[in-house]
Amino acid sequence: MTPMAASRIVIAHPYRHSIPSETVPSPFLSLNLNLKSHPKRYRYIGIHASIRSHKENDLNDKTNPLEIPNTPSDHSSSSHVISKDLLSLPRPLSSSLFSDTVSDGSRLRVAYQGVPGAYSESAALKAYPNCEAVPCDQFDTAFEAVEKWLVDRAVLPIENSLGGSIHRNYDLLLRHNLQIVGELKFAVHHCLMANDGVKLEDLNRVLSHPQALAQCENTLTKLGLVREAVDDTAGAAKHIASHKIRDAGAVASSAAAKIYGLNILAEDIQDDSDNITRFLILAREPIIPGTDRPFKTSIVFSLEEGPGVLFMALAVFALRQINLTKIESRPLRKQPLRVSDDNNNVKYFDYFFYVDFEASMADQSAQNALRHLKEFATFLRVLGSYPLDTSS
């Protein structure tokens, strides 16, 4: 979907309302800021395992679920049922299958990227223990499944303590009109697995998702295994099992080993024991932010090029003692370069800035900070205000 014009400011509902004037704390007045104005290469194996404007009446939009023909579907069985019969596992959703999928409304349907046994499935079941976890072949598919009313929620990774940010999902947050309604921290424990009878010394290569391979780099290097990148961890386990491969193993979860009948050769092979992935919970509608417990708010904005502009943008939070927990920049796809105005033809990259801060949009200080930011940001959108995951 085409990004908005640079001059358009959008603050997503339900946070649009008048904001009272404020007095900036005196200790900051002296700032006098003009706030207004490894050598083995990976091989890739293909294993198939919006910005739109928010109208003023969005809060009153009573859009009904899409009417989808109730035709037979491969998704009627729950994706968390453990079975060694690979044919009994649900086939991941793809965009081409949308017309054959329907929710019966019996329980919450939660989309995740990957196949049964993926870490994302475990995260979805942790967030919603009684849900029907629905596998999707790509991140894009999970976003679309929520938008098209095929599922109720999506649980998708956004960053990992070892591998860093999942840039694809940052871009998709901006492209799609979904709301962040929660976050989840999930401890990742990688296992090296292979088919029955295969020993560690029989392995020449290992398959897994690029991030999983990176997180186990030291162990895999010591074992002398060639790393081959695939779409997801559980997909690697499924491929090894279904093709009965004897010279390769997979890095995936213990759940994936159980589902696909593989033997675990080594456990907890990640380089750092504190391997945590943060997931976002996405829905069609936002939740109403409160002040009864700790909240986090996620926003995205863009700025004009100039000295200290980003500093001024971040200062609107510092002036109000609001703690920032994350800042990420992503190129503005439709307008990647900007020519400077000083006639020397210098070109700059244009960026979107994604920021998470510890405050609820029900807090006046957060409202005032965004009102301040809006005065000089060329684009601003609230992606969600949601309860902070305080689990360790």
Protein described:
This protein has 392 residues and is α/β, with parallel strands linked by helices. The protein has a domain at 26-36 and 288-387: Alpha-Beta Plaits (2-Layer Sandwich), CATH 3.30.70.260. It is 20% helix and 26% strand. The protein is built from nine helices and 18 strands. It has helices at 119-127, 139-147, 167-175, 210-215, 217-223, 233-242, 254-260, 309-318, 364-374; strands at residues 43-44, 109-113, 132-136, 153-160, 164-165, 179-187, 191-194, 205-208, 226-229, 248-252, 263-267, 276-283, 295-303, 324-331, 337-339, 347-349, 351-357, 377-387. Strands 1-9-8-10-7-11 form a six-stranded mixed β-sheet. Strands 2, 3, 4, 5, 6 and 12 form a six-stranded mixed β-sheet that branches. A four-stranded antiparallel β-sheet has the order 14-17-13-18, sandwiched between helices. Helix 1 links the parallel strand 2 and strand 3. Helix 8 (309-318) runs antiparallel to helix 9 (364-374). The protein is elongated and about 70 Å long. The two termini are 37 Å apart.
Secondary structure topology:
Layout: E1 43-44, E2 109-113, H1 119-127, E3 132-136, H2 139-147, E4 153-160, E5 164-165, H3 167-175, E6 179-187, E7 191-194, E8 205-208, H4 210-215, H5 217-223, E9 226-229, H6 233-242, E10 248-252, H7 254-260, E11 263-267, E12 276-283, E13 295-303, H8 309-318, E14 324-331, E15 337-339, E16 347-349, E17 351-357, H9 364-374, E18 377-387
Parallel strand pairs: 1-9, 2-3, 2-4, 8-9, 8-10
Antiparallel strand pairs: 4-5, 4-12, 6-12, 7-10, 7-11, 13-17, 13-18, 14-17, 15-16
Helix pairs in contact: 8-9
